[in-house]
Amino acid sequence: MGHLLHDKSALVPLIDRLNRYPVGLVDSPRLRQILALLFDPREAEVAARFPLTEATQTELAARTGLPPAELDGILESMANKGLVMDLPVGDETYYLLVPGLIGFFEFSFMRARGDLPQAELARLMSEYLREQGKDGQAGEFFGSRWPLTRALVYEDQIPVQSRVTRWEDSRQIIRDADFHAVTMCFCRHKKAHEGKTCQQGAPVEDICMVLGEGARFLVRRGMAEPRSADDMLAILDRARALGLTHITDNIREQPSFLCNCCRCCCELLAGVQMGFNEGIAKTPFVAEIDPERCDYCGACLRACNAKCIGLDAGARALPRDQRWAVVDPAVCLGCGACLQVCEQSALAMVPRAKRPRPPRDRNALFARILWDKGRLMPYIAEGLQRGLGRLRRRP
User: Fold this and answer.
1) 319-353, pLDDT tens digit by residue?
2) Can you tell me the distance from the alpha carbon of 121 to that of 242, in angstroms, rounded to the nearest whole number?
């Protein structure tokens, strides 16, 4: 690891390859320190040669020039670290290079590890995610017109006459998944290594959920534990009791995770708090305060995970007992976490003027982000090239 860190040019091909993903990694000295801690030199070289989509070991051997036995050991090490995903399909295993975010940054903290200096990584990642503001990694992650993630509403807090679709219903997302697991919360685990704890009392373990094929990979590699759908629903209830905001993939079909996020630790919510108002796609609802009922007790201000509730400008000159709070609808995620703390019943969820509709699936979402960032054509070209190559190899 040491000479990889000091030979900065050795990381350039890896960074270039990671930056072909919908969400890349903005180059900086801190990023290179992070990558040098996660990838050894051989792993960095193999990762830099990965295609844009999944590949078999045979295909990777042709791209890297490494003997299959040597390559197998490298891929196994990378999968154990969460740097690549191994995806068994019948008698064949396909390998996919994991992006940085959402990807191996999070996987690095989904278990307690002795093979990585997690305290050093925690510090570097926190600094990296905030450096350069909108010109840095925060802008790369949150700056697209198509957010990677979306919030989910507490369905028991919406108006009686309103309904949520299957993809807007957190409970239905859990029921529809064919495999469930729980894992450590990346954000709170990282904060713990920085000597900080969640101000809302949310735990590090058994609170964030992974679903489907990604969950199977994480379970195989010891980064998650399988749970039943009923177990997951109980975790969801626990998260709501803590006032956490549910966040999932910004897609309608087969979301891969459901995180339960707090205002003090969550890196996703930190982006909203930094000014990326559209960094997380919103629910079809927005919180609204009745000034006649509100006594400005401050409970909703403390409960809002997006930090979008404050004193109404028209009440600033009034005595405290005559003031009322107001929600900024441009920032409000519409999660409903604030409603349950209001003892005056001054808060209500109301439908947004325009109901958000996420892309159908992950491929559709990624295609839109890639198009926006001018990165789509390499995927099309490589897909055509690989398809023609596989056709030629058919007997």
Assistant:
1) 988 899 999 999 999 999 999 999 999 999 999 99
2) 28
